[in-house]
Amino acid sequence: MKPLINYLKGDLQVKIEDQGLIQQAFNHTSYVNEKAHKDSLSNERLEFLGDAVLELVVSQYLYHTYPKQAEGHLTRMRAQLVREPSLAYLARQVSFDQYLKLGKGEAESGGRQRESILSDCFEAFLGALYIDQGIEAVKSFLTPILLAPHQTILEITSQDYKTKFQELVQQKGAVQIEYRLLKQEGPPHSQVFTAGLFVENQLQAQGKGKSKKEAEMQAAREALNAYDNGGKP
Amino acid sequence: MKPLINYLKGDLQVKIEDQGLIQQAFNHTSYVNEKAHKDSLSNERLEFLGDAVLELVVSQYLYHTYPKQAEGHLTRMRAQLVREPSLAYLARQVSFDQYLKLGKGEAESGGRQRESILSDCFEAFLGALYIDQGIEAVKSFLTPILLAPHQTILEITSQDYKTKFQELVQQKGAVQIEYRLLKQEGPPHSQVFTAGLFVENQLQAQGKGKSKKEAEMQAAREALNAYDNGGKP
């Protein structure tokens, strides 16, 4: 495996001034808690900053890309793009999992695959890049992997919601899950779809979206939320 | 009253290119929903963007101002600075309440004093300023009113928590509320205080902070949170 800085500069075409700061983004707290690395800094403060950097870059992109979309729709897209599973997915896409520095215990218990750790590392890297090179560098880094392909990422993570709901309800055995289109409104260029999620022919949740797919995903998300809040699937 | 753009340029020393965009930040949705203003745009999309701009500017400032502070402490400070009452307070400080455009019904029912409306307008203005002039202009605008005096704002809004808790428990009559220092740890330059909130000599909540004042505020916040989540004060 190439050293981190060579990999970032060469393969990912990232400009870097302060190599130590960039390295810090990959130091999980379990790593710096080990005696041998007690002089290293963890990535937690960088993650605090990177979280805000990511939020702004994604917000600005959506604001300009969807000039006619209402704030509620933009907010939902943003929330889905910056949530943990999406960021963990991106971290793996750019091989950050291989460069993570973990404590021994954390590494042995599968920390390198843990979504929260991967997502935090990704945000910390954005924070470090922002300090080192400014907001435009962060935009350039995120354009090919997150911004330009955001539709695909929304679809992949939507699929996630539907899959998760299915896994959840089928823990107790096979049950019939079906998505049905309940409503389709508005003029051709800005239609709103409403999908219903039916379990054994009982309506469990509804979702709205600009496409059938998105409406179904929102319905699955609703159902998962209800379940998280103590309801039954 | 001066026209908005003159006021912003003259009194607040803000540079402006796109006057229409800046004006949009002051258009509450109730205003654009009126027939006579149906060609105006509301400030909702700008608020979506401004929220993220504010988060980044505050995060970056705290990150650099408190180089030794852990992420958890920075997150708490940020949350308190960007919450609705703080932003409504700032909006009033810069007289945005006078420039808000509201629908008739909203204006008559006291919308000009509503914290959510003021806070949204303040965020929308930051979004518009960011598009018009970039992140440095937003930092310059926020420095004298929010960043430099952030300690004072934290204190004012901390006071808020304590006052709110007091009002809450005393709805049913006079009860004795007391804050006691429970712990004081760490080396002189980075002490951590733990305060306990006692109601009728019963410990209700604890809070930690870099000062006694902050610890007490956090304890009041904890107690309010517990109450919001269905507990009793």
TrEMBL record, chains A, B:
Named cofactor requirement(s): Mg(2+)
Record localization: Cytoplasm
Enzyme Commission number(s) from the entry: 3.1.26.3
Catalysis performed (reactions): Endonucleolytic cleavage to 5'-phosphomonoester
Region annotation (Disordered) ranges: 209-233
Annotated residues for binding of Mg(2+): E47, D120, E123
Top class in the EC scheme: hydrolase
Keywords for this protein: Cytoplasm, Endonuclease, Hydrolase, Magnesium, Metal-binding, mRNA processing, Nuclease, RNA-binding, rRNA processing, rRNA-binding, tRNA processing
DRBM domain ranges (all copies): 160-229
Major localization class: cytoplasm
Residues covered by the RNase III domain: 5-134
Alphabetical list of InterPro entries matching this protein: dsRBD_dom, RNase_III, RNase_III_dom, RNase_III_sf
Catalytic site positions: D51, E123
RNA-binding in keyword set: yes
Gene Ontology terms, MF aspect: ribonuclease III activity
Annotated Pfam families: dsrm (PF00035), Ribonucleas_3_3 (PF14622)
Listed NCBIfam families: RNaseIII
Family note: Belongs to the ribonuclease III family.
Annotated function: Digests double-stranded RNA. Involved in the processing of primary rRNA transcript to yield the immediate precursors to the large and small rRNAs (23S and 16S). Processes some mRNAs, and tRNAs when they are encoded in the rRNA operon. Processes pre-crRNA and tracrRNA of type II CRISPR loci if present in the organism.
Assembly mode: Homodimer.
Protein name: Ribonuclease 3
Species this protein is from: Facklamia lactis
